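Appendix B. Raw example, untouched.
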Amino acid sequence: MSTDNLFNSVDSIEFYVGSAKQWAYFHEKAMGFRIIGYSGPETGVRDRISYLMQQGEVKLIFTGFLSRESEISRHVELHGDGVKDIAIDVDNLDDTLSFIRENGVVKPGEIKKLKGEGGTFVRSELNTYGETVHSLRDYGEWDSDLLPGFREIESQERNLGVKKIDHVVGNVEVNKMDPWIDYYVKGLGFTHFLTFDDKDISTKYSSLKSKVVEYGGRKIVFPINEPALGLKKSQIQEYLDYYETPGVQHIALKTDNIIETVRKLKSNGIHFLDTPGTYYDELEDRVGKIDEDIEVLRELNILVDRDHDGYLLQIFTQPIGDRPTFFYEVIQRKGATSFGKGNFKALFESIEKEQEKRGNL
């Protein structure tokens, strides 16, 4: 069986949160997402409230609970607000599940068929790190842009330049990174194409290890991080301590104009990590000539790195929720296919300053 077209793309990412309405409001007003669908008691769904939001090709779902007895309530109480489902679009669910079963590494859940005005929606579920899942979605017999149980919402376009999901990063425990890489490579047919060790990603205080898997020529990209031994607590261990399980650390949102996007996000109240001013003093010596004005990048705290394919620009928000767990990255690629290895030290030092403020370094 050909493994080239079993998975298409990340379809949507669903968060379990304490208040779906507040997360939707934040992402609409501050992040530029538009509400396109609503699910709840008014649409026949009795146990939850969900808002489906979109910007460019990125779809996010924020789901809250209606009863403290619900699985969503338990999840939020234990972990805080965070990602539950990284959904993946597939052309033929039967073929995809047959391939997964033949590999014998991942055990898929049962196939569920939901009928509605849009036809028949088919899905199955895979458990991955922590309590995160991948729901596999087959839209072949479903003629609607909305998921079952959602009704369309008309809202104002607020696009800030976000085009698509570049990658989704997971944090796992010490010595668990390689088994999860095998899960994707041996179990799902992904390719392992990049490794960073604690020599690549470290400061004098902390470090981490990371490996990256991709599928279909980078249609889907999942880096996996684990803590590494350091003098003090790494950001990955801080995440694991607060989230109380492995989970999604951040989502990288791709834009074609990071300066414009970041300016709009900052004007809407989004807080980003600071970058040491000395970072920009020798930037051109390190990365060579770039199109952007370095003083503008300094003003906005945007990082730059170059690889053999080109260069990239990136910036990271502070944690979005109350716990120091999930955050966003904004990234623009000008040919580069890597992840900003040259920025790791500056990024880590910025994160460690925030950890120190929280008393967790």
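End of appendix B.
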